[in-house]
């Protein structure tokens, strides 16, 4: 997400359609970093490096994992509603369900899988009781401008 524009600015990150994940509310904290759902402790601290290199970025909070998973999943679900080929025939799993994607071999889909594994290792779980969507859906839904689409 990067640095935020001004202290106090807010944004809401909605999960992809069909996802059971909740929306995440973020606010720009005093250090100009996004603080999501009141959890600002996920930025972590880096360890000491050797030879002048810095340490790692630390562990993400479950909200931060969910935000990144939702962002990458949305990119993996982009499709072409005007194209004649059948799309959205593959799946990747978020923290809750299998989700339809254009290609599970895409960089975005692989990033979703890696983020989910890291989130699970950090103790994050689904937390939703809503039913999962049918996946794969083989259904590319056009946006309102009909310029792009998203796997349903």
Keywords:
alpha+beta, 3-stranded antiparallel β-sheet
Spans where pLDDT lies below 50 across 5 or more residues: 41-57
Mean pLDDT over all positions: 76
Radius of gyration: 17 Å
> Major sheet, described briefly?
3 strands, antiparallel
* Topology as a string of helices (H) and strands (E): EEEHEEEHEE
Helix tally?
A: 2
Query: Helical proportion?
Result: 10-25%
- Apparent shape: globular
How many individual domains? 1
Q: What would you call the structural class?
A: alpha+beta
Beta-strand content bin: 15-25%
Strand order of the largest sheet: 1-2-3
Distance between the termini: 25 Å
Give the tally of β-strands: 8
Mind sketching the topology for me?
Layout: E1 10-13, E2 24-28, E3 34-36, H1 62-76, E4 78-79, E5 90-93, E6 98-101, H2 107-121, E7 140-142, E8 149-151
Antiparallel strand pairs: 1-2, 2-3, 4-8, 5-6, 7-8
Helix pairs in contact: 1-2
Describe this structure in words.
20% of the residues lie in helices and 18% in strands. It has a three-stranded antiparallel β-sheet, with helices on one face. It has a three-stranded antiparallel β-sheet with strand order 4-8-7. Helix 1 runs antiparallel to helix 2. By secondary structure, the chain is of the alpha+beta class. It has one domain. The chain is globular and about 50 Å long. About 11% of the residues have low confidence. The protein has two helices and eight strands; from the N terminus they run E-E-E-H-E-E-E-H-E-E.
């Amino acid at each position: 997400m990067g640095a935020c524009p001004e202290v106090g600015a807010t944004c809401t990150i909605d999960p992809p359609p069909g996802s059971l994940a909740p929306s995440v509310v973020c606010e720009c904290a005093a250090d100009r970093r996004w603080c999501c759902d009141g959890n600002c402790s996920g930025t972590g601290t880096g360890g000491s490096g050797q030879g002048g290199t810095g340490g790692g970025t630390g562990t993400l909070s479950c909200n931060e994992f969910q935000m990144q998973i939702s962002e990458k999943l949305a990119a993996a679900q982009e499709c072409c509603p005007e194209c004649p080929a059948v799309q959205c025939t593959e799946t990747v799993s978020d923290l809750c369900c299998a989700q339809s994607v254009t290609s599970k071999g895409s960089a975005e889909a692989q990033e979703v899988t890696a983020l989910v594994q890291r989130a699970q290792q950090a103790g994050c779980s689904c937390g939703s009781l809503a039913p999962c969507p049918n996946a794969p859906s083989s259904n590319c839904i056009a946006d309102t401008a009909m310029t792009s689409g998203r796997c349903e």
